[in-house]
Amino acid sequence: MSQKPGPDSFLTHFNARGEAHMVAITDKPVSDRRARAEGSIRMHRSTLERLRQSTVGKGDVLAVARIAAIQAAKKTADLIPLAHPLALTAVEVEFVDQDEPPQLLCRADLRCSGQTGVEMEALTAVSVALLTVYDMCKAIDRGMEITAVRLLEKSGGRSGHWRREV
User: Fold this and answer.
1) Distance between CA atoms of residues 73 and 119, nearest Å
2) Looking at the domain assignment, is residue 69 inside a domain?
3) What's the average pLDDT block by block, 10 residues per block, for the chain (166 residues)?
4) From the annotation, which residues make up the binding site?
5) What are the alphabetically sorted keywords of the record (predicted)?
6) Is the CB of residue 155 less than 8 Å from the CB of residue 58?
7) Could you tell me which residues are annotated as the binding site for substrate?
8) What does the alpha-carbon distance between residue 105 and residue 97 come to, in Å, rounded to a whole number?
9) Which of 166, 37, 164 is nearest to 106 (CA)?
10) How many domains does the chain have?
11) pLDDT of residue 22
């Protein structure tokens, strides 16, 4: 049984009957869109050191995680219900290792020229990159913890520019 959103609702994925649907974007103008997201995976110091030295038995973890992030960003519409398929024009993924606490930070910066934003693609890229790191390192550290996956900034479209305040 569906429930209709209230008059003050800003949810856009509901039709007049209160049912979930893919939002029509045909009337929205094409504009340059950008989104940046980040997340981290905490781990034992020894795991972080093995990542730094590229001595994890499964190969170059960060190279594989970067490719996984790019593939996930391109497939977001297949993973997230109601997300629109987008033709991404740029996907940049970077990893930064940090000592305190021992963790690996992942940042993704995505761009497209389209009728809807790339926030979900950026968040998906970061999430899948971190899950890939977990998968490739779990034999040496099952206690890793993925944390703080969040949008940092978005620009373009009707809602304009937004940046997370630190």
Assistant:
1) 10
2) yes
3) 46 68 68 94 98 93 98 95 90 97 98 88 98 97 97 92 92
4) 82-84, 120-121
5) Lyase, Molybdenum cofactor biosynthesis
6) no
7) 82-84, 120-121
8) 6
9) 37
10) 1
11) 66
Q: Token match 């989104």: residue?
A: 35
Residue 98 lies in a domain: yes
Q: Among residues 64, 72, 67, which one has the least CA distance to residue 136?
A: 64
Catalytic residues: 135
How far, in Å, CA of 65 to CA of 69, rounded?
6
Q: What is the 3-state secondary structure (H, E, C) of the chain?
A: CCCCCCCCCCCCCECCCCCECCCCCCCCCCEEEEEEEEEEEECCHHHHHHHHHCCCCCCCHHHHHHHHHHHHHHCHHHHCCCCCCCCEEEEEEEEEEECCCCEEEEEEEEEEEECCCCHHHHHHHHHHHHHHHHHHHCCCCCCCEEEEEEEEEEECCCCCCEECCC
At position 131, the amino acid (one-letter code) is L
- Give residue 143's domain range: 31-163
